[in-house]
Amino acid sequence: MNILLLGSGGREHALAWKIAQSEKLDHLFVAPGNPGMAEIATCVALDPMKFPKVGRFVVENKIDMVVVGPEAPLVEGIVDYFRSRPELQHVALIGPSAAGARLEGSKDFAKAFMRRHHIPTADYQTFGADRFEEACRFLKTLKPPYVLKADGLAAGKGVLILDDLETAESELKAMLSGRFGAASAQVVIEEFLSGIECSVFALTDGKHYQILPEAKDYKRIGEGDTGLNTGGMGSVSPVPFATKEWMQRVEDEIVRPTVEGLAADGLDYRGFIFFGLINCDGRPKVIEYNCRMGDPETESVMLRIDSDFVDLLERIARGELGDYRLEESAKYAATVVMVAPGYPEAYPKGMRISYPHEPTFDSALFHAGTSRDSSGHLVSSGGRVLTASCLGSTLEEALAASGRDRDDVESVLAADNEPAKVALVARDITVGQLAERVGAARMEAEPGTLAPSALLLGGGDPHRLYAVRDGLAGVQDEGSQLVAAMLAGAPVEGPDGLWLDMCAGPGGKAATLASLAADRGARVHANEPREHRLDLVADAVEPWSDIVDLRLGDGRDLGSQEPDRYDRILVDAPCTGLGALRRRPEARWRKDPGDVPPLARLQGELLASAFGALRPGGALVYSTCTPVVEETRSVVSSFVQATERARLLDAGSIASAVAVREVAGYDGCVQLWPDADETDGMFLAVLAKE
Questions:
Q1: How confident is the model at residue 76, as a pLDDT?
Q2: Domains of the chain by range and CATH?
């Protein structure tokens, strides 16, 4: 597929960067583009506002899709132009018609649209120069600060927020007298909304919609949100206050009514909708619409989209968005804008640009105001010059996500560098009997600090012990022992006779589960997709072979093959294993951040399949041996949010009930740490099926 992207700023560079990753792309053109985009696309000297020239280029270069980045061509009717020309009607256009683009092109139109379709926004009235005195009277009915908005496009400069009435009246007169040209021939006066702003983006095919990752931008030039307003100094995604509940209100009260309202009004709209929102005491309200993506929010949002973006755009053009499910990264994205000195006031141009190194796999440098001088050197050509965007999920973030202080990093790292104690698990004998056998072998041991089935060996080879060789006991980290104990201890409603270990290899947890199941008269199905690992499981569970059924297969198929069958299910999912660095320090160099996204997708698929195989009233434990947020809380929270019958139980309470001490939980989950718990960094969540 050949694609033409219109635009030249940081927003368009971010879009081009994402489009260029698609396997469906043959060739990407950008008009006019910038030096940054020239590294990934062919830049062509076309003015996006010269529709006939754009059309001729599209025909001559066999363009299949046109993506419109900025608002001006949309408001002026580029979509309408293409659809009026027989030779261009086959081209897929991502953008609304001129009538639809009035959501951004006219503040009065947008406010009337929201009022008509009962979409929450600030109260307002619109005035022209002939109604100046009436406008002043309306101002007096409002409380300061006073909000004045030029009705038309004003390059992002047509909004004034003023603290006193006299200044507001003076600025209103200036606006109506042509301060922003034709854009302020009419002025919208609205009540001031107090709260925290948030940018939400949706793509629509005219009937259906897909909400993209939300973002928050920062406008002021100075540190600590101080100084003059700008076009945007940076952005972050996700937004901390945009909880599942809040975003559901956004969808129900704003996004869906907007898409339905456009259709009801007969407006042809296929493309981006930007919702500039504000959180007013927990209720989202619309500040403004845009008919394109925001800048610099796009530079953060694009990094968090894992789906093929061109596939998404194709569906928009074909009107086939209804069954699409966007894949997005659980990582945090941040964008910082680099500006010319003096911006947003007078600033120089033509400054030479250099940067010390190329962006890494999880970062990107997007060009906004750059060009080449006569010698070919990269120079600044605008106020906002470059945007640096990065994805991250650090150990600090993992600590914070589990309720610990970010400053505990050094403690965790130090613990990871210390050798782990050898933990024994009593399976077919009691802990007391195991202790006696350890003593008889002239070895020392002490009780575990977490799992009631554990002994911590003071030294020596555990495989010297006959109990270990015979399978009566085993070598198993206390965190791993706790996983099995929590599955056995989780509350279930109804029968309790059939358990599943979905990812059983190499068999340690399966053996511990089998010993617990045997005491209950339950059976265990141990599933493993790789035959050589299933052989290891068979060896581990041999003492309980009469109650354990081995099965070879992909766990992702079990949900459809055996729906609503199992009473208890363990999903000890494949992961980076970064919670076990004490025992496998080489993982530091064998693992790469690029390993995380495909693992997270696999973990989500396994969890979904396991939940399908779980009967109503049953219990499921999801565990991974890692502190990485994308493999732990993000997998669980994304699944719970998307699954109507899934309920997250209090893992901390369940763990405390089966452990020898209280186990700290946070937000319903448990994250063990080598420094605080003297275990591997196991993550545990417990789900019930309603």
A1: 96
A2: 2-98 (3.40.50.20), 123-190 (3.30.1490.20), 479-689 (3.40.50.150)
